């Protein structure tokens, strides 16, 4: 393996950019305009798993949260200088291995904040107002008409939303909840005095107090199974859980048991522990709204996410520090 530095002068002929997915921007045009002579490989459409790709001479990799980037992959890519992850979460990447290999890792924060908060709030409303059950009832043809006691849900006005993880998306969720007349509490390692209306509490107090709980934390060893049987037992039976963060933050069998036993009033999930595989009991669980990991899925946001990846690749290959560098240690 040749010795290399992130600041080596780059000769663009022979520089190779690989993307595991087609993108809603013209990556080829952007890369070749900025780095004449560079080549770009990407599928014409859809996603090609990173395991199938030849990365022997790849200088840059654009990948999705579906792609596991670990020491074994990095060993297959000895020239790699940057991994641009088209997601804000980087739990699919072994950051220590990337840093040890002196590979810059970038992500796509900010541009997906509002879209993800919108989806989280949509799931909260859908679970609170039993929209999934209502839609299934109408489509089934079994609806017999208006009834005084039909599909009674809960009103959000005046209720307390507990936000786990008061980062950008958590704060965007707080703004929405306040706009709906909810009170907001949050659990976060840091105090956020900028959201003056929100009170910081412990995770356990949040579970015991909130009428609705929304997860906005990254998946880390500390947050894995943060929602477990013990915390669900602390929650009010009238509470609703929303997860647009990562499936691994929730102990799914414990959530299913709580919903089936009526120890939790409802839930809205966008993410799953082993997605796209689902625990089949999720499909029959009462008062559960399911979405297919679409938190950031707006045309505007996905285009901006792809653009940040292109910018990151071009920056690193041009010797510039990328804007959203996750492992800053690789950049002197
Ligand atoms: C992310 O970016 O981490 C989301 O899960 C997908 O956009």
Structural class by SSE content: alpha/beta
Instruction: Calculate the terminal CA-CA distance, rounded to whole Å.
Output: 21 Å
What is the helix/strand order?
EHEEHEHEHHEHEEHEHEHEHEH
Residues in helices, as a percent range? 25-40%
Number of strands: 12
Textual characterization of the structure:
The longest helix has 19 residues, at 299-317. The chain has 2 domains: 16-111 and 299-330, 3-Layer(aba) Sandwich (Rossmann fold), CATH 3.40.50.720; 113-290, 3-Layer(aba) Sandwich (Rossmann fold). Strand 1, helix 1 (27-34) and strand 2 (39-41) form a beta-alpha-beta unit. With 332 residues, it is an alpha/beta fold. The chain contains 11 helices and 12 strands. Helix 1 runs parallel beside helix 11. It has a 7-stranded parallel β-sheet with strand order 8-7-6-9-10-11-12, sandwiched between helices. The chain has a 5-stranded parallel β-sheet with strand order 2-1-3-4-5. The two termini are 21 Å apart. The structure holds (2R)-2,3-dihydroxypropanoic acid (DGY). Residues 65, 87-89, 112, 295-296 line the site of (2R)-2,3-dihydroxypropanoic acid (DGY).
């Amino acid at each position: 393996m040749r010795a290399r530095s992130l600041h080596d002068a780059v000769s663009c002929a022979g520089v190779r950019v690989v993307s595991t997915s087609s993108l809603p921007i013209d990556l080829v045009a952007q890369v070749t305009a900025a780095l004449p002579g560079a080549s770009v490989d990407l599928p014409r459409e859809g996603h090609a798993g990173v395991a199938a790709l030849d990365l022997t001479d790849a200088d840059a990799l654009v990948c999705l949260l579906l792609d596991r980037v670990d020491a074994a992959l990095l060993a297959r890519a000895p020239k790699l200088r940057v991994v641009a992850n088209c997601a804000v979460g980087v739990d699919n990447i072994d950051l220590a291995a990337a840093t040890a290999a002196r590979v810059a890792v970038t992500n796509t924060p900010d541009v997906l904040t509002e879209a993800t908060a919108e989806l989280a709030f949509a799931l909260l409303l859908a679970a609170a107002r039993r929209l999934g059950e209502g839609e299934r009832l109408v489509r089934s043809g079994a609806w017999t008409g208006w009834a005084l006691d039909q599909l009674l849900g809960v009103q959000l006005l005046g209720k307390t939303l507990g936000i786990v993880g008061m980062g950008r998306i958590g704060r965007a969720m707080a703004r929405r909840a306040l706009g709906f007349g909810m009170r907001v509490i949050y659990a976060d390692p840091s105090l956020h005095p900028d959201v003056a209306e929100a009170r910081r509490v412990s995770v356990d107090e949040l579970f015991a107090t909130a009428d609705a709980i929304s997860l906005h934390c990254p998946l880390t060893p500390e947050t894995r199974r943060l929602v477990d049987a013990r915390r669900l037992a602390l929650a009010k039976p009238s509470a609703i859980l929303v997860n647009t963060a990562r499936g691994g933050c929730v102990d799914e069998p414990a959530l299913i048991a709580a919903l089936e036993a009526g120890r939790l009033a409802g839930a809205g999930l966008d993410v799953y522990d082993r997605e796209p595989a689902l625990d089949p009991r999720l499909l029959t669980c009462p008062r559960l709204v399911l979405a297919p990991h679409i938190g950031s899925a707006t045309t505007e946001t996905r285009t901006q996410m792809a653009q940040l990846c292109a910018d990151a690749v071009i920056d690193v290959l041009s010797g510039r520090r990328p804007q959203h560098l996750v492992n800053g240690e690789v950049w002197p």
